[in-house]
Amino acid sequence: MKKRWILMALVLVACSLLFATGVEEQKETYPTQDINVYIFSSQGGGTDAWCRFLGPLMEEDLGVKVINSNLPGANGGTAAQKVWTSPHDGYTVLGASETSMFFGSNGVAPTSENWHFFIAAGSGGIIVVPAKSPYKTIQEFVAAAKANPKSIKIANSGQGKGWHTKAVTLEQAAEVEFKHVPYNGSGPAITAMLSGEADAVSCSTGEISEYIRAGLVRPLVITEAVGERFEGWDGMVPAASDIYPKGAFAFSNMFQWLGFMLPIDTPDFVVKRFETAFQKAMANPKTAEFAKSQSAKLFGLSGAKAAELAKNMEAVTWWMAYDLGIAKISPEKAGIARP
Question: Could you tell me the pTM of the whole model?
Answer without folding.
Answer: 0.82
